[in-house]
Specification:
Shape of chain A: elongated
Strand content of chain A: 15-25%
Structural class of chain A: alpha/beta
Number of strands of chain A: 33
Distance between the termini of chain A: 34 Å
Oligomer: homodimer
Number of helices of chain A: 36
Largest interface: A-B, 57 and 57 residues
Helix content of chain A: 40-55%
Chain lengths: 897, 897
Amino acid sequence: MPEKSVYLFREGSADMRDLLGGKGANLCEMTNIGLPVPPGFIITTDVCRDFYGEGGRLPSNLMDEVRVAMEDIERDLGKKFGDPANPLLVSVRSGSKFSMPGMMDTILNLGLNKDTLQGIIAASGNARFAWDAYRRFIMMFSDVVLDVPKRSFEHILHSYKKSKGVEDDTQLSEQDLQEIARQFLSHVQANAGREFPSDPWSQLEMAVEAVFRSWNNDRAIVYRRQERIPDDIGTAVNVQAMVYGNMGDDSGTGVAFTRDPATGEKVLYGEFLVNAQGEDVVAGIRTPLPISQMADALPESYKEFITICSKLESHYRDMMDLEFTVEKKRLFMLQCRVGKRTGAAAVRLAVEMANEGLISKEAAIQRVTASHLDQLLHPRIDEKHLEDNGTKPLATGLAASPGAAVGMVVFDADRAAEWGNSGKKVILVRDETNPDDVHGMLAAQGILTARGGKTSHAAVVARGFGIPCVAGCEAINVDLQSRLFSVGGTVVKEGAWITIDGSTGRVYLDKIPLIDPEVGGDFAVLMNWCDEARKLRVRANADNPRDALQALEFGAEGIGLCRTEHMFFERDRLPIVQQMILAETDEERELALDKLLGMQQRDFEGIFEAMAGKPVTIRLIDPPLHEFLPSYDELLEQVVELRLAVHTLGAESIKRVLEDKEKMLKLIEGMRESNPMLGLRGVRLSILFPGIVEMQTKAILQAAVKVKKRGVETQPEIMIPLVGHVNELKTVREKLEAVAASVVEEMGEQIPYTFGTMIELPRACLTAGAIAEYAQFFSFGTNDLTQTTFGYSRDDAEGKFLQKYVEMKVLPANPFETLDQSGVGRLMKMCVDDARQVNPKLKLGICGEHGGDPASIEFCHKLGLDYVSCSPFRVPIARLAAAQAAVSDRVTAVVDK
Amino acid sequence: MPEKSVYLFREGSADMRDLLGGKGANLCEMTNIGLPVPPGFIITTDVCRDFYGEGGRLPSNLMDEVRVAMEDIERDLGKKFGDPANPLLVSVRSGSKFSMPGMMDTILNLGLNKDTLQGIIAASGNARFAWDAYRRFIMMFSDVVLDVPKRSFEHILHSYKKSKGVEDDTQLSEQDLQEIARQFLSHVQANAGREFPSDPWSQLEMAVEAVFRSWNNDRAIVYRRQERIPDDIGTAVNVQAMVYGNMGDDSGTGVAFTRDPATGEKVLYGEFLVNAQGEDVVAGIRTPLPISQMADALPESYKEFITICSKLESHYRDMMDLEFTVEKKRLFMLQCRVGKRTGAAAVRLAVEMANEGLISKEAAIQRVTASHLDQLLHPRIDEKHLEDNGTKPLATGLAASPGAAVGMVVFDADRAAEWGNSGKKVILVRDETNPDDVHGMLAAQGILTARGGKTSHAAVVARGFGIPCVAGCEAINVDLQSRLFSVGGTVVKEGAWITIDGSTGRVYLDKIPLIDPEVGGDFAVLMNWCDEARKLRVRANADNPRDALQALEFGAEGIGLCRTEHMFFERDRLPIVQQMILAETDEERELALDKLLGMQQRDFEGIFEAMAGKPVTIRLIDPPLHEFLPSYDELLEQVVELRLAVHTLGAESIKRVLEDKEKMLKLIEGMRESNPMLGLRGVRLSILFPGIVEMQTKAILQAAVKVKKRGVETQPEIMIPLVGHVNELKTVREKLEAVAASVVEEMGEQIPYTFGTMIELPRACLTAGAIAEYAQFFSFGTNDLTQTTFGYSRDDAEGKFLQKYVEMKVLPANPFETLDQSGVGRLMKMCVDDARQVNPKLKLGICGEHGGDPASIEFCHKLGLDYVSCSPFRVPIARLAAAQAAVSDRVTAVVDK
C-alpha cells in the first residue's frame, strides 16, 4: 500500500498521469492554473494494482482517506455528502494513463437516496429533474455495480411509456418518474438478491470497487490488446462533485477542440446543447449545435470559454479536446486532453504552432507521427461521401499497402497489364499473387487478394511499388473460370468498378471519390525542418527509373537497394533468363547473357539518369535460379497428364511436347531445394556461376560511362548479397574488380564505383571485422537477418504461427515489421562496432523493410548508421523518424547533464 | 632475407622443423646425438619464401653462404666439391615441415662431370659404378632442372638395351654405360637448348632453384590441398654428402621401424638389400629381405643399427621410421622420423611405452588420434586378403559411415527388413534413402546409395546407428524395376553378395573377409587413462534401448539426445501419428494421442532401464508435422492420374479413392512450407498444438515412475527444442511443469526431472541470459545453429555448393563436420558467458554431430561445457578427444608460467 492513496485535484498535476490517470491529471492541472473545475479527488492507479494484488479487495484504510478528501470538497462547496438537507452528489469515473474511451464504467449522481433526493428537490427547486436524476442513478449503479443489466431497466421504462402512450422521455411527468424509480428499485431487489444500497458511503465504496473491476472486463482487455496498452498499469478513480447542464435555458453542455482536428485550421471547433447533460448528447436524443452558436445562447459563458481555450492551448502548447458544462450561467470544465487529429491537421498544427512561437521546430517534428504522414502520402477515401450516402464496405481484408484505389476488376495479370497499359484503371483481384504476376500488378491501381498476410507476395510487392493493396480478404470467393468474385450473395464480374482502401483493408462496390495526397505547403516546411534536424541520410529502394523518380520526389538522397532480379522477372526477359539458366553449352549461355547485358545496361542508364549523381546501390543477382523457372508442381501435373494422353492417344506431336516437358521437369527437379531461403543463392551463385554477375557488373559500369558521356555523374555502389564468410566477398570482389577496371579502361572514363556487401546472415555480423577489410560499404538486409536469427521463414511464419505468437504475447511484435533489438539488433551492434574498428571509413546502411519503420529507424540512428533505405512511399516517414531520433538524442543529452 | 640462410647439420635440432623442414631437422638431431650421419647442410624454408617473394630468384648472397657450409663438409670428409682428384658428391633433396612423400624433387650424385668422374673411378676403384652414377645423375638433373622428361631418357636406354639384346640394366658394361651417358648428354643439348652444365657449382645452384620450384608443381599443390598443408610454408633444401650402398657385398641399404607399425609389437620391423642403393629398392628390381637377416649379412652393422634404434626410440620417445645405408661396412643414417602406424598399433604403442616408462600417460593419450580409434571401433576389410587376391573395388563412393559390411543386395526397405529380420545379412542399395526406409536400414548390415553426400539422410542415419555406409556412389546405376544395379558392364542382381567399406567408400563384389573390432586390452587401458584425464563428460545420442546399451558399452555417461520423433517414424506408429495430425475432432486427436502415450511410455521405460540411473535428455517433438505425412509430389501424381482415370472410366470406386486422396492432398498442401527448416516445428509446434508435448511429458514421467517402482532410478531431462525467445520456453515449460507435477503426484513417487532447452538458433545465443532464467540445462544443437548462422540448408548446401566451397578454399572446412569457431563458436561463447552469469548452476552440453568431432570437442572443453553427446560409436573418440583437450590445457598451463 503506497503512502498516499487519494489526491485532491489541487494536489496533482498534468505530469502525474502514471499515478492519477490521464483524465485525473488534467483535472488537477486545470484546477491549478485557476480554471473553474468542480472540486474532486482521485484514487490512484497504485490502489488499483493493490486491489488486484489483494484478490479484488480495497486496501483497508482507503475509505478513511476518501472521507478526508470528501470533507475538503464539502468545505469548498458548503454541501455535505449524504446530508439530506444540503446533499453533495458526485460522479465516479475511471481514468487510466491511456485513453480507453467507453471501455470502463462511469456512475453519475452518486449519493442519491430517498432522503438526499429531498435536499436536491429543495436546492434545485425542480422535483422532476431530481427524480429523473434518481432513476438514472439507480439504473447506472445497478448496471455497473450490481450486475443488473441496463437493458432490463430500459425494458421497464419502455413498457411504462407504452402503457402511458408516450414516445419521449421528456413527456414523462414527475409522478411517472417516481413510479419508474419505484419499479427500478423493486427490479433491483428481485434481480440482485439485495436491496439497492441507500447509504451514500456504501454506494461510493461499491462504485470504486466496480470501477477497478471494470479494468479487467472483456472489452477493456480486448481494447488494450489492440492498442498495445499494458495490462498491469491499472486505472485511477475520479470522484468529482456533480454539476448540471440541464437546469434550464441558462445551462448547457458541450465538447470542443481548440483548433479544427480534421484540417488543423485555427478555429474553435465543437458542439453544444442548451439545457442538456453530456449523456443526452451521447444518446443522440437531440442534435447539438455548432459551438459558434453558443455566442448567442450563452454569451458570457462563451466568452469565458474562449478565454479558457486560449489559456489551455498556451499552457499545454497543443491543440486541446475539451468538455464543459454550464450550470445556471456558471461554466465548469470537466475534461481536457490533447486532441486527436488527422494527418493533415497534425502537420498543419505543428507547422503553425512553431511559426506562432508556441512550440519549437524540434517540438513540431515530435508532434507528427508516421501514421499521420502515411495518411497524407496516399490517396484516401472521402469519408464524408461514405457517411452522406451510408455506404458500407462489401468486405474487409488486411490493410496490406496503404492508400485507396478505384478501378475495374480483372482476374489475371495479363489482362491487368493489357487494360492497364491501354489507359484503363484496373484492380487486380487474385487468390494470391506470385512473381509471374508482377507485370499485371505494376499496371494496376490496386491489388486485392483473397489469401495471404501482410507480408505475402502481393503485400510486399505492392508496398514496394506504392500500390494500394488489400490482402487476405477471405470473404471474397474468386471464380476464375466464370471471371467473377462473390461475397455472400453479391457477385462482382470482371470489368465492374470497385474501390479498395489499403489503409483500412476495406473493399467497396462502385467508384468512391478519393482525396489526393497533400504534400505541398506545411508538409514541405515540416520535411525541411526534419532534414535540418536529422543525422541519418535517407535513401529509397527502387528497381526502375519510375520508382527512382518517385523516390526523388519524396526526398530520397540516393538508392539504397536496386534489386536487379526484378528486372529479370519482366515478361520480355524471363525467356532469356531461362535460356541462360538452361543453356547446355557455354555458347548458348553467353548468347543469352549478351542479350541480358544490353537490357540491363539500359535499365541502369535510366536509373542513373533519374538519380543524377546521387549514389545508387545495385545488388547483384540474389534469388535461387529455380525461381526463374516454371513451378515444379504445375509442370509435374502437366507431365502426368501428357503421359496418360500419350498412353491413350499415342500421338507423335504430344509425345514431343511430353519429352520437352519431361526434360524441363528433370532439370527443375535437379535444381529444387528443400529450403531455398538457405540454398544456392546470393554470392554462392556468383561464385559457382560467375558469368551472371560479371555481365551485371559490366552492364552497371557501361551504363555509368554512357550516362557520364551525356553529362550525368553517377555513383554506382555494387553490392554482393548473402556473404557469410570473408572469402566469399574476397573471391567475387577480386573477379568483379577486374571486370570493372577493364570496362572503365576500355571506355576511357573514370567512374567512382565502390564494392560492398549486404549483411544479412548472423555469421556476417559475427565476423564483420574480417569482412570489413574487403568492403567499402555494408548494408544490413534485416529481412533475411531476421529470418536466420530467429530461424523463421517469413513465407511460412507469417501465416502459420507469427500472428498467433503476437496475439499470445509470446513475441512483443512481428520482428519483420519492427526490428528485434535484443536479438537481431545485438548482432547489428556487434557488426557495426567490429567493422568500424577495422575500417573506419566503411559506409553503413540498412535496406531491409525495417528501413521504413520508425522504431527501427531510431535504433539505426543510435547504432550510428550512415543511412536508411526504404520504399519510395516511406521516404518522408523515414525523414521524419530520423529527425525525431536526432531530436530525442538532443533532449536526452540535455537531461543527462 | 633472414640473417642465416644455411644451417650445418650440427647447427640445427629436431624442434626446428619450421625452418629446416622435417627431414633436415631430424638429420641435425641425429648428428647432434652422435649418430653416424653423412655431413651436410640445409638451406632454410625462409629462403624458399624469399625465392617466391622475389619472383623465383635466389637471394643474391645465398651461394656465398652455401660455399662456406660446403667447406665445412669438405674439411670433415677430406674431399673437395668439384675437385677432379678427390671429388665430393652430394645429394640435393627437398624437405618441408610436413612429409610430402614423392611430391617434390631429389637429385643424387650432384657434382659429377667428366673430370670428377675420374676421381670417383679412382676413389672407388669401380669404373662401371662411376659411369652408372653419372648417367643416372644426367637423367635426374635434366628431368628436374632442365625440363627434359625422364621418360625420354628411359626411351634412349631402352633402345640401347634392345640394340644390345640385353634385358637388365645390370647386364650393361662400363662401355655401354659410357655410350649411354654420351647419348644422354647430346639428348640434353638437343632438347634443353643448352649444354648439360658441367660446373658443379652451377649444377648446385640450378638444383637448389629447381627444388624450390618443385614446391609449386601440380602434384605438390594437389597433395597439399588434400592433406590440408598450408601453401605458404615452403620447403627447405637438404644438401648432403653422398654415401653408397652399392659398393659391394659389404655394403647395403634398408628401411626399418623400431616397432611393428601394423600391430605395435615391440620388434624391429623392416627390410634391407645387400649391395644396393635406396633407388633400387623403390624401383622394385630386387626383392628386399627381412631386416632380421641383416644379422647374418652385415653382422656388425646390424648390431650397430640395433643400438641406434634403441637410442633413437629413447631419444624421441616414439616408434621411429628409419633409412640407412652401409658403405663398405660403415653404417650411415640417412633419415629418421616418427613412424606412421595403424589404429591398433597406435593404441598398443601408447600403452606399452607408458608402461615402459618411456612416456607419461598424458603423452600416451596424445599419441592416439581419432582416426586411429575409429579404425578399431568398426569391422574392417582384411587388406591382406585383397592384396593376396589382387581384388580391386567395383566402385568407390563417399566414406559416409565407417566400418565394413558384407551382405546380400536388396533394393527396398521392406525387403531389407524382411530378409534382415529373418537372419539374413543384407546391404540396402538405394538411389537415396528417406525416413520411410529407416526400418530397412536398421535391419541391414550396410547401406549403399547412388546419390547424396556425407550428410545425406542415409549417411546421417547410418552414422547414428553405427551402420557402415557408402553414399553418393555415382558409378552405380540402380534399376529398381529389374531389381539390379550395374557398374559399367557389371550387373549385380538382388540377392548377390557384396562388401562395402564405409571407411574408404569402396564397394567390392562378393564376400571379403572382415576383421572384427578390437576393443579390449590396451584399448580399455587407454580409455581408462582418458577418463581420468578429461573434464568433459561424454554422453551419447540414442533413441532406443538398443542404442542406449551400445552407448553404455562404449562408456557413455548418459544420453544427451533422445529424439522422440524417431519413434514416431516406426512402421506401426506412423499411421497413428497421421491419425493424430489429420484428426478432425478433438476426440479423434485424443484417441490417437492416447495410443501414442502407451507406446512412448514403453519406449522410455526401455531406455531408462538400460541407462540405470544415468541422466537421459529427451527432446520433445521437433520436425514439422508434414514430415509424417505422404510426399506431396507423389500424392499429386496419383491424384492427377486418378482424375484422368475417373474422367475416362467414371468408376464410382475410383472416384471415392480420388476423393480421399484429394482431401489428403489439400490437407498436405495447407501444411506445406517453402522452408520447412525455418517453419512450424520445435517449440512453435508445442505452443500451437500443446497436446503432443503434454502426452510426451506424461509418457516420460509415467515411465520414470514405473521404472522406479521396479527399483531403477532415473534422471529424465526434458528438452524443449528450437527456442528463440524466452517466452517460448516460459510458455511451454509452465504448461509441462504442471503436467509433470500432476503425474508425479498422482503416482506418488519423487522423480528428479529437469527442464531445459536446445540452443540451436542465433537468437537463443544472443538472448541466452534471459532464457537461462527459465532453464535448468542448455544443450547446443550445433547442426541447426550452423544452418542458421551460415544461412545454409544442410540438405541443399552439401550437394549444391558446400563441397565446392571447401575445394575452392572459400571455406576452410565443412562447418557441419567441424564446428566453425569464429562464427558459430563466437555465438556459443556469448551464450555460455551470458547464461552462466544469470544461472551459474545451468548444466551445459552439446548434442549436435560436432559432439563427436575432436576439434569441436576441444573447443567445447575450452568453452567450459559440462558434457558432449555424440553417436554411440563416437563415444570412445569423444572420451579420447576430451582427454586430449584436458591434457593440452595442462601443458599450456605449464608453458604459460
